[in-house]
Design brief:
It contains four helices and two strands. By secondary structure, the chain is mainly alpha-helical. It folds into three domains: 50 residues, no CATH class; 57 residues, no CATH class; 42 residues, no CATH class. About 3% of the residues have low confidence. Strands 1-2 form a two-stranded antiparallel sheet. Bound molecules: zinc ion (ZN) (3 copies). The site of one zinc ion has 8 residues, from loops.
Length: 159
């Protein structure tokens, strides 16, 4: 089809065909099939997104495992591999990052556990953390007093 020069110029932004003759038949952003007048994008939202992400980084090094992540899929701002079994996940069960991140989560859970349920230094029972302030060393005032007496006894017997 021969498009008159005047008309082609006027509709240029939406009528752009690459000079090598190749025409996109799918949206360059979402890869949906294009119809009719569409040349690059299936919708305005895809045009906006494509241009927005065009100059943004497409890969990033994962802060946990050091592997390159593909930022074209998933959250483009993520700092670490996304875990999962779907096609847009970076790491699945058995992958290095999966193990590392699960270890980290378990370590954090243990830390929180140790903070919220500290072990009494005298009787060994679980003492509860009030949520703020210094961590309690003893489960009760009785244990605190008993520990104090025990320390005193030890110092007087060695002296
Ligand atoms: Zn699209
Ligand atoms: Zn990773
Ligand atoms: Zn105690």
């Amino acid at each position: 089809m021969i498009v008159p020069e005047r008309r082609r110029r006027r509709t240029m932004p939406f009528r752009y065909y690459p000079t090598n003759g190749h025409r996109n038949d799918t949206c360059v952003y979402c890869h949906e099939a294009l119809t009719g007048e569409q040349v690059l994008y299936c919708s305005d939202s895809c045009r906006v997104k494509y241009r927005y992400y065009k100059d943004k980084p497409r890969t990033r090094i994962c802060e946990v495992c050091g592997e390159l992540m593909n930022l074209r899929v998933g959250n483009p701002r993520r700092k670490r591999c996304s875990l999962g079994t779907g096609p847009d996940a970076d790491a699945g069960p058995g992958d290095e990052c999966w193990e590392l991140q699960n270890e980290e989560a378990a370590r954090k859970a243990r830390e929180i556990d140790a903070r919220d349920f500290p072990i009494c230094a005298y009787c060994g029972a679980e003492a509860e953390y009030a949520g703020r302030g210094r961590h309690r060393k003893y489960c009760s005032d009785r244990c605190r007093a008993a520990a104090y007496r025990a320390r005193k006894r030890a110092s007087t017997s060695t002296a």
